[in-house]
């Protein structure tokens, strides 16, 4: 249970009820981070707009690279909600979720391509207590994905750091998007 309880639909006004209905249809359940953020409607709306725009703008990287890097951040920060939700998103995008078991060994695992390894290493370098990104890393990533791809990857990693740290601070844990019945979402 989160440190701040979710705002229930019974407590919601008509706009929030609509947001909950849309989220419920899209994900099978209202994501708890959204239901906790509902206690601050202006920030919740800001988050929805930001997430939507960031998703629509992120078109330069292959989806598997972006999703793996975001997933790696979630595992590094220890956000079980983000790991659960991220696994569901990868499953729905048709990505190989079995290889997520090898994410800690990405540097040597044959399950990951060179580009994926570079992206995962950037996620590691950006998700520790201090940022340890090097000029050489960025140069390699630029060769692999171009400048716009490096900016997109860095942005998405930073965004996931923000999500994962907020969820951890508020005690938001996995909802069962991939493992339980409560939020099982049908494949599109």
Automatic annotation (TrEMBL):
It comes from the Bacteria. The keyword Oxidoreductase applies. The keyword Translocase does not apply. One of its GO terms (molecular function) is peroxiredoxin activity. InterPro entries: AhpD-like. Keywords: Oxidoreductase, Peroxidase. This is AhpD family alkylhydroperoxidase.
């Amino acid at each position: 249970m989160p440190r701040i309880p979710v705002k229930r639909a019974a407590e919601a006004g008509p706009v929030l009820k609509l947001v909950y209905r849309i989220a419920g249809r899209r994900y099978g359940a209202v994501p708890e981070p959204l239901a906790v953020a509902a206690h601050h409607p202006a920030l919740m709306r800001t988050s929805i707009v930001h997430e939507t725009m960031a998703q629509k703008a992120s078109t330069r990287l292959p989806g598997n690279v972006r999703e793996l890097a975001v997933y790696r951040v979630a595992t590094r920060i220890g956000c079980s909600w983000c790991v659960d939700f991220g696994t569901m998103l990868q499953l729905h995008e048709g990505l190989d979720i079995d290889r997520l078991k090898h994410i800690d060994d990405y540097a040597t695992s044959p399950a990951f391509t060179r580009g994926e390894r570079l992206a995962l290493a950037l996620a590691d370098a950006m998700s520790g207590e201090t940022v340890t990104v090097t000029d050489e890393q960025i140069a390699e990533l630029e060769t692999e994905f171009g400048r716009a791809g490096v900016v997109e990857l860095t942005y998405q990693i930073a965004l996931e750091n923000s999500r994962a740290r907020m969820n951890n601070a508020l005690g938001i844990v996995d909802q069962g998007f991939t493992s339980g019945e409560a939020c099982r979402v049908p494949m599109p």
